[in-house]
Q: What sequence folds into this?
């Protein structure tokens, strides 16, 4: 077969023609595919859409519920934490009070005092002027309390709000228990404050020394008082 | 001849493989272009049978007819008048005429052959 210009032109024209036909065919089939929506399909689409809407509505309701419950939970947690705090405060208060009434061991810094009868009593003098009396102890106790002592013990026995200290002959009775001299007084509190208030000029120590009592005192970093 | 058929097949394949989507609005243009191309092709065949075929006329006619038809459709769309119907009518008319003429020529050709056989 001879190849000439006629054939080339024909080929080219047929190529364009074929292309147009194919595109047109594809175009038509594409639109036919998309546009054919039957009533059944429409109903089904509507049905599924309705289901989706219902589901979303339910989801929203449940989400609302979740939010409400979370809020409740948060309130409850807050209440719990408040209760916890109250309880902690109550326990702390109880422990403080227990320490005050001697149900618990108590420890801390403070001072130590020892009151002793005078060893040497001149024969012409009255021996009563040379020994420790209950009012000396009371003086010390009052001074210590007013200086902010938190707990006081005499010879290891705690002194409370209703304690009494009386002189019974040669011994001193603390809440019914008798103790001979020397009397060791421990006080827990700020040791500097306590010391300063006791050693004030014309203060308690001076007074005790004037009454011929041997007084020893020192600051302690650690005093432990056993519970009753 | 084989070259033409091969090119036709290549064109069809390319058209099917290329994923061109034409908006619905332009489907009129495509249909009118196809109609114009078809008309020109048949016109070419008829001219060939009449032995008045001219390659230049055929080629220019092919593209000129397509362009004119599309242009007419475009103007019609702009004016709101269905001018493309005129093109459809004209091309359809010519299409049938060309087919009729081709049929007649082919019929004559086969009759002449039969006559020649009988004469032998």
A:
């Amino acid at each position: 077969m001879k190849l000439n210009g006629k054939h080339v032109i024909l080929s080219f024209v047929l190529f364009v023609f074929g292309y147009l036909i194919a595109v047109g065919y594809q175009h038509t089939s594409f639109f036919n595919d998309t546009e054919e929506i039957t009533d059944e399909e429409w109903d089904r689409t509507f049905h599924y859409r309705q289901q989706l809407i219902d589901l979303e509505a339910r989801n929203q309701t449940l989400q609302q519920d979740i939010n409400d419950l979370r809020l409740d939970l948060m309130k409850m947690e807050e209440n719990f934490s408040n209760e916890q705090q109250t309880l902690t405060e109550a326990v702390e208060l109880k422990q403080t009070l227990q320490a005050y009434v001697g149900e618990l061991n108590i420890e801390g810094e403070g001072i130590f005092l020892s009151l002793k009868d005078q060893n040497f009593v001149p024969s012409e003098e009255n021996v009563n002027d040379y020994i420790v009396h209950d009012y000396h102890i009371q003086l010390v106790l009052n001074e210590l309390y007013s200086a902010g002592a938190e707990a006081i013990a005499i010879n290891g026995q705690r002194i409370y709000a209703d304690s009494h200290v009386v002189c019974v002959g040669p011994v001193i009775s603390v809440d019914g228990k008798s103790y001979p001299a020397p009397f060791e007084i421990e006080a827990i509190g700020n040791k500097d404050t306590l010391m300063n208030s006791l050693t004030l000029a014309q203060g308690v120590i001076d007074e005790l020394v004037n009454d011929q009592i041997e007084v020893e005192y020192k600051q302690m970093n650690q005093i432990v008082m056993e519970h009753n | 001849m084989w070259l033409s058929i091969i090119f036709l097949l290549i064109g069809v394949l390319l058209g099917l493989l290329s994923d061109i989507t034409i908006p619905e609005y332009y489907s009129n243009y495509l249909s009118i272009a196809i109609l114009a191309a078809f008309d020109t092709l048949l016109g070419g065949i008829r001219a060939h049978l009449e032995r008045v075929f001219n390659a230049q006329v055929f080629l220019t006619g092919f593209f000129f007819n397509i362009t004119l038809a599309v242009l007419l459709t475009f103007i019609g769309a702009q004016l709101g008048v269905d001018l493309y119907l005129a093109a459809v009518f004209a091309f359809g008319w010519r299409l049938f005429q060309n087919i009729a003429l081709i049929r007649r020529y082919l019929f004559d050709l086969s009759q002449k052959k039969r006559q020649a056989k009988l004469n032998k």
About this structure: Chain B has four helices and no strands. The mean pLDDT of chain B is 85. Residues 25-119 of chain B form one domain. Helices of chain B lie at 2-17, 27-49, 55-79, 84-119.
